[in-house]
Amino acid sequence: MIDLHCHILPGIDDGARSEEESVRLLLAEKEQGIDKVVFTPHFNPESISPEAFLEMRADSYERLKNTPGFSEIGVETKLGAEVFFSMRLMNMDVSELCFENTSYLLIELPTNVRPYGITHTVRSLLSRGYTPILAHVERYEYFTKDPTQLYDLVMLGCVAQVNAGAVVNGSSKKGVSAFRYLNWELAQIISSDAHSLETRPPNTRAAYDLVEKKLGRHYLKWLIENSLAVFQDKILEIPVVNKPKKFLGRWI
Ligand SMILES: [Fe+2]
């Protein structure tokens, strides 16, 4: 199994604070059956240059690779980033921000307000051969209020990811949204977004177990195949799904 979104690289963002914590988080991933992980530290193009970020990321990765116990874990790792949305992405070389040796780019959106220029920016990335993966789509209020906004972006060519933590807390507001998107196949990926063992632990396995119970084994298989396709830079075939519509005050 694969985790495509986590903050396990040490000392670079609000995730793991030390190399030792990174190793503990990777061990927790392995115990759940995760054997492929993409490291996706936060990167905000409005506050730091890509060059400075990539240098910090390389330094952090180097320290982790030299940490006792790291190489014995047996998890295949790739570098990536969780890029905060900015219209600067239209003119930016994002090749090294994508998941290593792939054309998939993880993008985080503002929580409360749909960002100006998102469609233009997504179109620009897609036209250059990159595939945006929208991070934790259950979190954005404008998608919750109007899921056709998410639908339109997915139909343009974006992939949508939900956090395992939201799936596990299925009765919460975010959990309800996560299951709704999964059920509609408007979200195609589950990842941990793990930050620490205490607050936001790796819990992809628990989320997968719940999905299998609620939506069925074939559905779980589809989700795992999707993550593997992204990790291996294969084309992810997004199903043509029905556009959500409001019926008697409920989105169906
Ligand atoms: Fe994240």
Radius of gyration equals 17 Å
How are helices and strands ordered from N to C? Answer: EHEEHEEEHEHHEHHEHHEE
β-strand amount: 5-15%
Lateral strand order in the biggest sheet: 3-5-6-7-8-9
The CATH topology is TIM Barrel
Mean pLDDT: 96
CATH class: Alpha Beta
What would you give as the CATH superfamily?
Metal-dependent hydrolases
Class per helix and strand makeup: alpha/beta
What is the global morphology?
globular
Structure report:
The protein has a single domain, classed as Metal-dependent hydrolases (TIM Barrel, Alpha-Beta Barrel). The relative contact order is 0.15. It is 38% helix and 14% strand. Helix 8 crosses helix 9. It has 252 residues and is α/β, with parallel strands linked by helices. The protein has a 6-stranded parallel beta sheet with strand order 3-5-6-7-8-9. A 3-stranded parallel beta sheet has the order 1-2-4, with helices on one face. It has a two-stranded antiparallel sheet with strand order 10-11. Fe (ii) ion binds next to loops.
What features would you highlight for this structure?
252 residues, alpha/beta, TIM Barrel, six-stranded parallel β-sheet, three-stranded parallel β-sheet, 14% strand, binds fe (ii) ion
How would you concisely characterize the structure shown here?
This protein has helices at 19-31, 50-65, 118-127, 141-145, 148-156, 164-168, 173-183, 204-215, 217-231; strands at residues 2-3, 36-39, 42-43, 76-79, 82-84, 104-108, 131-134, 159-163, 189-191, 246-247, 250-251. By secondary structure, the protein is α/β, with parallel strands linked by helices. It starts with a strand and ends with a strand.
